[in-house]
């Protein structure tokens, strides 16, 4: 018997369905059901919430989410080999698990969900950052989700919560911290996974703010941040010169030294520059 429900241990499930992890799908399975339940608890009280899970694989985290009381779980799985194992979980939790076989980058999940909605996932390494950026940059804010509880490579997790002044600080930190409270809630060693990756992993919990921390046009802010960090070794007067002919004057007006580099600039200053750029005549 497993630690969290009456279903078989994950090693048995994987062996029975021949679910060897595929590197090309970014798969690394977390087999310890106590750990998957802990990740589910890191998402907060799930009773009364619908949950999106991307890349459930054999269903370890899926079982954690359901055992912790999620009202409904929508699991999006690209690998058809995992569907029979997930079907067994669905039978054990009648009416509470809906599985879609497809690519999370191409699926609109909202037709299958009722708010409040949270996203909890051990994201496949090869699509994790792209999905996070999509969830952080919707057309309207607040987003459809209340919170994101996501596992990444530890290096990526550290980039999400990084502060100005270090190498980890970049576009991902600005986008995440502009609109959410982000914190690392758990780290996991390579040996927690099958197969064991070469790196540590970490779970990040991001709570959506009602509105961004500082006013700014999202598209303009994204252009500023992308230009600054794409050439992070350059001074801002050089890396941002393509944004406006008078970029030095705008930097000074925003309280930013034109000779500073992007990694030295805080979120509030980036937003101030984005506002000035949006208002500046060409």
TrEMBL record:
GO cellular component, one term: cytosol
Keywords from the named record: Cytoplasm, Methyltransferase, RNA-binding, rRNA processing, S-adenosyl-L-methionine, Transferase
EC number: 2.1.1.182
Compartments, as annotated in UniProt: Cytoplasm
Main location as per UniProt: cytoplasm
Catalytic activity: adenosine(1518)/adenosine(1519) in 16S rRNA + 4 S-adenosyl-L-methionine = N(6)-dimethyladenosine(1518)/N(6)-dimethyladenosine(1519) in 16S rRNA + 4 S-adenosyl-L-homocysteine + 4 H(+)
Entry annotated with the keyword rRNA-binding: no
One Pfam family matching this protein: RrnaAD
One MF annotation (Gene Ontology) recorded for this entry: RNA binding
Family, as annotated: Belongs to the class I-like SAM-binding methyltransferase superfamily. rRNA adenine N(6)-methyltransferase family. RsmA subfamily.
Its biological purpose: Specifically dimethylates two adjacent adenosines (A1518 and A1519) in the loop of a conserved hairpin near the 3'-end of 16S rRNA in the 30S particle. May play a critical role in biogenesis of 30S subunits.
HAMAP family the UniProt entry points to: 16SrRNA_methyltr_A
Protein name: Ribosomal RNA small subunit methyltransferase A
Organism per entry: Paracoccus laeviglucosivorans
